[in-house]
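Re: [ENG-882] Designed sequences occasionally contain unexpected residues at chain ends

Forwarding the minimal case from QA. Structure tokens:
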């Protein structure tokens, strides 16, 4: 009877060892998958960082473009004010008896 009991214990120990080995393989697989996911997440985070920097650069360029557009608008408005004055200056020049030799004069 003792021999049978020892055989049952040995069989149970082999079964537990086999299940333990299978469990170890599964845990190693899960750990490997976790490392792959971690690498993929790090790559995704790096890509998102690059995208964020690109968006910031585009925003800065848009701001610069807006500033340039506002400067151009001010120049155009200034030129329009000068153009509005041209008829008045032309009329003054037409009413003068002699043209001025002063080159700084508008006539």
């Amino acid at each position: 009877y003792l021999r049978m009991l020892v055989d049952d214990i040995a069989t149970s120990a082999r079964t537990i060892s086999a299940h333990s080995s299978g469990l170890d393989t599964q845990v190693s697989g899960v750990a490997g998958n976790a490392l792959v996911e971690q690498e993929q997440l790090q790559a995704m985070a790096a890509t998102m960082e690059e995208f964020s920097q690109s968006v910031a650069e585009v925003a800065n360029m848009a701001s610069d473009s807006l500033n340039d557009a506002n400067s151009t608008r001010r120049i155009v408005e200034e030129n329009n004010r000068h153009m509005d004055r041209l008829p008045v200056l032309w009329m003054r020049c037409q009413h003068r008896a002699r043209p001025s030799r002063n080159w700084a004069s508008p006539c």
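QA comment: On inspection the terminal residues look reasonable. The chain has a mean pLDDT of 86. Proposing we downgrade this to a documentation issue.
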